[in-house]
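Board notes (copied after class):
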Amino acid sequence: MKAYGAQSMVEPLRRVLVRRPDAAFGAADPARWHYASRPDLEVALAEHDALTALLRGAGCEVLFHEAPLPDHADAIFTHDPAIVTDAGAVVLRMGKAERRGEEAAIAATLAAAGVPVLAELGGAATAEGGDLLWLDHDTLAVGRGYRTNAEGFRQLAAALRPLGVAAVEVQLPHGDGPASCLHLMSLISMLDDDLAVAYPPLLPVPFMELLAHRGIELVEVPAEELPTMGPNVLALAPRRGLALAGSPVTRQRLEAAGCEVLTYRGREISLKAEGGPTCLTRPILRSPF
């Protein structure tokens, strides 16, 4: 089996990178990090251990990002500083200033796991993994918002073009402003090549039209389940997802669409810190074999 390659949101997840909550997470100042309240580190560790147990139970090899990152509470969200392509990692540049420095650390961890660096964003570019959604192997939707800017889109598209990947820009809404975390994947997750779970009221019309043109059916999240991260679901395999507990209507709708939904408890690691199961995981390898 190859060591890396994850140009899909839905193929079976084989290798994944996570980071256990650490002292920086437990000491996070809610005002600075835009958390609902300060996490309870002991409970957060138990929640994260349960999450990784679910991943292993689903057949994933779980790797740990253990590089020292003092004063980086958000480093628990391994999804954001890099993406992994068939040719290696593209190291991004964080749009949230407090997260700068995570990029080199995760690049070193990925290299130790056998993933070479294909490209690195630089200069004025910003882009975060939460804004990057593979629609298929050769099409990457890129949320253009406060975390991913125009130069980030340009550099990312240029890095992926030699691989035959087309980057599609998706304009994101203002939401609660620059301080909050509104990624593209806060609004939509793929569960199969032709199925996504989404909150359409905050998605732009051209993107909705693109999804319809590609024959992607949407399972709609009700407004009351947007705060409990109803649209944020990690596909473990086609139509098999991992979701934060607390969105029962969305779960029922996903099951009606033929999905199996596993859930985890994430009051500390998700609800307080504004990051769901996709945010907490960096897929390294997705493969049907």
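Comment from the instructor: The CA atoms of residues 93 and 223 lie 31 Å apart. The first strand starts at residue 13 and ends at 18.
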